[in-house]
Amino acid sequence: MDLTLSPTLILLPGMDGTGSLFEPLLQALDPAWPVQIVRYPSDQPLDYPALIARVMAQLPTDRPFVLLGESFSGPVAVSVAAKCPSGLMGLVLCSSFVCNPRPGLAPLSPLLKFLPLQRLPFWPMDALLLGGFSTPTLRTALAAAIAQVQPQVLQARLQAVIAVDVRQALATLELPLLYLRARRDRLVPSSASALVLHLRQDARVVAIDAPHCLLQAAPVEAALHLQQFMQRLLNTRAVASGGSSIGHPS
Fold first, then answer.
1. Which one, of 152, 234, 185, lies nearest residue 74 by Cα?
2. Which domains does the chain have, with CATH numbers?
3. Which of 57, 64, 81, 168 could form a disulfide with 7 if both were Cys (CB 3.0 to 4.6 A apart)?
4. Alpha-carbon radius of gyration of the chain
């Protein structure tokens, strides 16, 4: 592994799992930063342990990397980081959680299998995920991503969120942590980021004026904070190795 290289940003997608919704962020990031998107199968209702194994199998082996878990993938990113894979430099959680962010909905878990997701109108999802930041382009992208995923897969992922708990894994991590919080998030409440900060008081929490789909609605601001985070990791590594700070990724 070449530790002189800048880290690859590994993007783990939200509940749709397609990775297609990262496009606005990709356009906003400096192309000098390498990026890799891990995609989840749209026809297999994999649970969190299976998704963790899938991500582990796709991690770079030739250069360092930073993990970003968006929404549903936050617990995946935390669990992967807890396995201390070689080359991992930092962890980013975006509009995410380490345990069920809406515990009041837990009793409804048995009913999720009967939820007719394929027949539900799109507007409630638009309001929940995009809210006042909704645009025709974002609505089209969101609808297209969701349409690619089998209803039983979405139901399985919803049930996985209700049962997940990676609080202990996060608390024991000794890794730089950035949390991107959406101020207008109607899905994941602010208590989710507060819990992350409680478990990791050294975490850097950045609030951005955005809906739950933060990376899609505010990609330029998100990219700025991500690049600053990775640059700090590079500078810290350079100082630790006895060199000077690095001005640009390679």
1. 185
2. 8-240 (3.40.50.1820)
3. 64
4. 18
Do 193 and 179 touch, CB atoms closer than 8 A?
A: yes
| Cα-based distances in Å from 94 to 3, 33, 142 | 26, 19, 17
Evaluate whether 11 touches 28 at the Cβ level (below 8 Å): no
Confidence of residue 122 (pLDDT cuts 50, 70, 90): low
- Can you spell out the DSSP letters for 46-113? --HHHHHHHHHTTS-SSS-EEEEEEGGGHHHHHHHHHT--TTEEEEEEES--SB-S-GGGGGGGGGGG
Contact 171, 199 (CB under 8 A): yes
Is the pLDDT at 111 greater than 50, yes or no?
no
Residue type, 7: P
CA distance 185 to 182: 5
